[in-house]
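User:
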Amino acid sequence: MNIIGLGKAGCAIAEKFGEHPQYKIFQIDVDKQGTRCYNVKRRKGPEEYEANTPSLKKFFGNIQGATTFVIGGSGDISAMSLRIMEQIKDKCDISILYIAPDKSLLSEKRKMHEKVTYNVLQNYARSGAIERIYLISNPQVESILGEVPIMGYFDKLNDFIVSTMHMINVFRNADPVMGGLRTPVGSRRISTVGIYDMEKDEEKLFFSLDTKRETCYIYCVGEKRLREDGGLHKNIVTQMKGKTNDETVDVSFGVFPTNYNNDYGYVLAHSPNIQS
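Assistant: Predicted structure:
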């Protein structure tokens, strides 16, 4: 999978993905140096960044296939996002990983820019112009982690976001021993991810979707328990039956073997609606 990071937040997360060998990383930002890094000239505002979006055909080379475009919406450089994706859309299946900042800390000008970016990219996804947009709220991720120190604050949040996305990607390319992961139907292209406590039957999403229409649960269970726990099948089926009471939400699940002693889980949620 290709990972393209745009701006400071996008590049920081792209670098985290680069710690895993499954990803090819591209970074685009002001004063960015290094392998597969593109140095963008500093501009005065989002309008100038958009108007001066460079041609990146040579930079991307023979890029193709599944591609995740990582962006934080409050940075001025995010105004280049659509024009960059336009250059690779014929060769790549693009999804966006959108990092929503703590809006209470933004100036009014930044809030307005973030709002525009946030809504435009969702509409772009919902129309089918790109595969999907994953919405991640930094304040919500912090609330899941608990107290996060100032030193290394964003590093800890990014670690958690990337490790979750990476493991979901891993299980998407693995064979479950029970169930299966569905591909969301139709216009359900506004998505988020989260963690799932299978013992407490409790999910914590990284973004609060207004209207969920599809949810997928990933059970990650040690092989020893899969072989020896005779009640596990019944417990999982009971949990899933409880989630299908809401007829407006389609539910699927997959059970995957792991080599770990502790069991854990993930959840994906999808909506057809632009989030407010």
